Every structure is written in structure tokens, then in C-alpha cells.
Amino acid sequence: MTGRSSAIQFTDQLFGHLSRAEQRQWAHAYVRGLLSTRGRKSIPRLATAASDSPTASQALHQFINESPWAWAPVCDQLQQWAEGRVQPNAWNIGSVVLPKRGDKSCGVHRRFIPRIGRTVNCQIGAAVLMSTDAGELPLRWSLLLPEPWDQGPRRERARVPQTVTTPAETHLLELIDMLVKCSRHEPVPVVIALDGYLDARRLIDGMNQRRLDFVLAIPDTFPLVPCASVGRAARGPVRTAARILGERPAEARIPAGRSGAVDVPNSLVQMPGAPAAEQPPQTFRLFAPSSVRQAGAGELWLTNMVHEPVEVLLRYTDRRTAFGETITLLERGFGLRDFEGRSFPGWHHHMTLVSAAFTYSRLALAD
């Protein structure tokens, strides 16, 4: 790995809160192994790349799976290191499917995955990426814990902290709180596309309570009420999001290169059952990057940035493509899927170190 001294400085900054020098040593070794090891990033292979010691593999296993170090301070330091080099344009949050064998890994369950059209044995994670002019940078992770992982013996064996509670939406909103608190910049919009794994209404309410701008992918069946203008109470019947865009959309014409322009269906909407005392009522913009005819089968988006031009909103939804491309890079080159442990802390340790290696490669090794 090039830039050895700067890499050591990088990991020392991220892991400076660890009191033991050998922990910082193995953190650096793990990052170095992720950057230099070709193929599968198993702990034995990472250990071979990091050290000639016959006990290196055991030491790395201990550091990742057994050592009780806190990963949140590392994520804070990684965010501050990255923001010292590039400025965030948005927080890009999406789901990651991690296929697994067996039923012992924390959070593993069988689930139908719409994107691939079949049921798989997997873990579901939420990745928080920082969108920048230099690309997407992974900073924080959340592991979905469905039943029976939310309580009982399996939770205890996986060493899930008592502070990690359901609903999962609460944990994700807490991660967003950490992003805002840690950032050296003014809050930027949050782009969320979680493929229906979390409750959209809870996320919307949480973002509104935090007064954060957001663009959120919602199900076709999400209930809304169309309204005529911002701040004016909606009086019509409740409709599904897809039906609203199919029945009565406005259409914004957006330049589309050589093809001329495309029409983007959109409508001002409000939430059904909004408190009567809410003055003025909260208004959102519903829109679909695809055509009206395709809206029922494609992605629908909701935003509280009602005064932004639709063309600007599409720049945020386009971040989902960048999200997918970045996850593919993490899978192919940085060992995202290669964690073999079973514990909740071990999963977060691995994902945090993967994030560190990737971000370092993009912002330091690219210089």
C-alpha cells in the first residue's frame, strides 16, 4: 500500500480513542489488508497481507469479533476527516442486501427481495453515504433486526446492545442525528431509498421533527391527499401515491440532452390525518422520474422541498444510481460481503473498517 505513513496517520486519527496501542495496530492492519488484498477479504487473508506473525489471524479475529471497542467514535472521526477534504452535497441512504449461509449470523433471515425477484437468506443493512463532488463515501451503517432478533436468546448470543431497540426507524434517525451533529457544514438534504424495509411515515415524521430537508422513495400504495397549493389545507379524498400521479399530475418539462425534454409528473400533497391545529398544514411534493403510465411500477418520491425546481429534485433522486454503483465497488473491491462473524458488534466493526478503507482510497490515494 502506498502512502504508508499517511495511512498510519489516518488510522491513528480514526482509532485514537482506543487506549491500547495493539488495538490501533490491528485497526491499521485491517485497513491495509482491505486495500491490498486481492479477492476475498477473509481474516486469514487480511492477516497474511498485514503481518508475518503466525498469530496475526487470531489477533485480527479478536480485534473484529471479540474486542469491545466502540465504532461510533470511529465513524465520527471518519466523517470529520472526509469533510476536511470534500464538502457534502447530500446524505445518501439506501438498503444493502448481504446474502448469507446458515441462520447464525446476526440479523439473518429469509426475505423476498423485489429487485432480484426471489427470496434469499440474507442480512439487510442500511448504508449512509456522503454525496460529494468526488463521489459517494460510506460513513455509517445500521443492521436491520427482524423477529426473532429483536429479543430473546438469539439476540443475546449475537451480543446486540440493550440500547439497540426497535423500531428500526428510530435507529436510522439517530444515525442522521449523528451526521448532523458531527458535520462541520450546514445540514444538507437527506436522500432515502430503503426499498420498503422501513416505515416511510415514521421516517417522514422524524425528518419533519428535525426540520431537515429530505427526498424519500415511497411505495406506490402510500396514502396521500392532493392539494392545490402550499399551505392550503387539502380537502379531497385519500388516494394512493400512484393514483394521484396517474389521475391529475402537473408535468414539469426537464431538459434531457439530445432527446429534447421529458415530462416529470408531480403533485402537491399532504398527509392524511394531519392535525387540524397544524397551521399552515405541511405540504409535500410527490413526483416520479418516470412517465405517468410507468409511475405505478416505478419509483415514486416525496419531498418537503416544495419550492425547489423539479430539475433540482431529480439530481437528488439520481444519487440512487451512484449509491448502487458505490455498493458494487465495496462488494467487489473492499470485502463488503466477506464478514464471516456472527455478532452485532463484529458486523459493525467490519463495516466501519470497510468504510474507512474505501474513503481513504478515494480521498488520499487518489491525490
Task: Give your account of this protein's structure.
This protein has 367 residues and is α+β, with helices and mostly antiparallel strands. Helix content is 38%, strand content 21%. It contains twelve helices and twelve strands. It has helices spanning 4-14, 21-36, 43-50, 56-66, 72-83, 153-157, 168-182, 200-209, 241-247, 310-317, 319-333, 344-363, and strands at residues 90-99, 109-113, 118-132, 135-143, 190-193, 214-218, 223-226, 239-240, 250-255, 261-270, 284-287, 300-303. Strands 1, 2, 3, 4, 5, 6, 7, 8, 9, 10, 11 and 12 form a twelve-stranded mixed beta sheet that branches. A hairpin with a 4-residue loop joins strand 2 (109-113) and strand 3. Residues 292-297 have low confidence and may be disordered.
